[in-house]
User: Which sequence fits this backbone?
């Protein structure tokens, strides 16, 4: 129920209520939400308040609006654990989804000061720049750009990066991947990301920067990715010590 005497804003109470119905499966993917008027009548609140709650749910990716039709429950986001160093291919397979890649480009470029310092090589040294769209069951999830030292990773080819890069590093180059650091921040899609990820202008993305090291501490890759925030959320377990 909606409690109008509560200090909790009414739009927020409604938002939480609908979110709860989605999480509990009372409202399922593809279901149409009741109209603004129906919510307003049912809870005796203004349509403005209903609109505010629904806009929040749209922004957070729980529901989406279809022009002239209504508002529908969106597909559940992929919940990605932050523990454990895994590859995109492994992550998708664990979920029973089919990973695929769309190669945007594969080229060798001179290391910028940023990539050089991240990879601990000389500025201007040749690095592979690999840009791929990562797809799950055919749906674009992220645009990913990897930088790896050319001399440290011989035999890397366009064909190789059509499938798993980590699989090639570990099973063909016989290197052991050790650890990684990752930074996640929010942003809005660029024009290019918007087209490649097949989302609307202004859609939110999570920008992830990963630096991965081999088990002997040698930097392996520096990666910049834009993950669709409407399809992804990240999860971590924490222990208090
Ligand atoms: C993930 C990693 C990326 C790594 C890739 C290897 C993030 C943010 N990025 O996408 O750093 O290069 O996996 O995937 O998690 P692959 O082995 O499937 O090519």
Assistant:
């Amino acid at each position: 129920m909606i409690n109008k005497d509560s200090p909790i804003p009414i739009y927020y109470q409604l938002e939480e209520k609908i979110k709860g119905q989605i999480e509990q499966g009372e409202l399922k993917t593809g279901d149409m939400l009741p109209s603004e008027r129906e919510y307003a009548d049912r809870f005796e609140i203004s349509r403005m308040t209903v609109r505010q709650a629904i806009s929040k749910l749209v922004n957070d990716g729980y529901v989406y609006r279809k022009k002239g039709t209504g508002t529908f429950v969106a597909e559940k986001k992929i919940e990605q654990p932050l523990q454990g160093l895994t590859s995109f291919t492994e992550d998708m397979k664990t979920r029973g989804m089919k990973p695929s890649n769309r190669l945007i480009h594969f080229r060798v470029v001179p290391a910028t000061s940023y990539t050089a310092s991240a990879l601990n090589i000389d500025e201007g040294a040749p690095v592979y720049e690999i840009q791929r769209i990562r797809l799950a069951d055919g749906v674009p999830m992220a645009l990913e750009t990897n930088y790896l030292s050319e001399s440290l990773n011989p035999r890397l080819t366009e064909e190789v990066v059509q499938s798993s890069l980590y699989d090639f590093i570990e099973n063909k180059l016989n290197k052991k991947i050790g650890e990684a650091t990752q930074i996640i921040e929010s942003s809005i899609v660029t024009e290019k990301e918007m087209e490649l990820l097949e989302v609307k202008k202004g859609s939110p993305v999570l920008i992830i920067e990963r630096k991965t090291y081999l088990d002997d501490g040698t930097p392996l890759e520096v990666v910049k990715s834009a993950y669709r925030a409407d399809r992804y959320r990240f999860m971590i377990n924490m222990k208090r010590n």
Notes: The pocket of 16G is lined by residues 87-89, 144, 146, 164-167, 208, 210, 221, 223, 225 (CB under 6 Å). Residues 83 and 236 are 7 Å apart (CA to CA). The helical segments are 10-23, 36-43, 47-59, 88-94, 113-119, 165-171, 191-197. The mean pLDDT is 95.
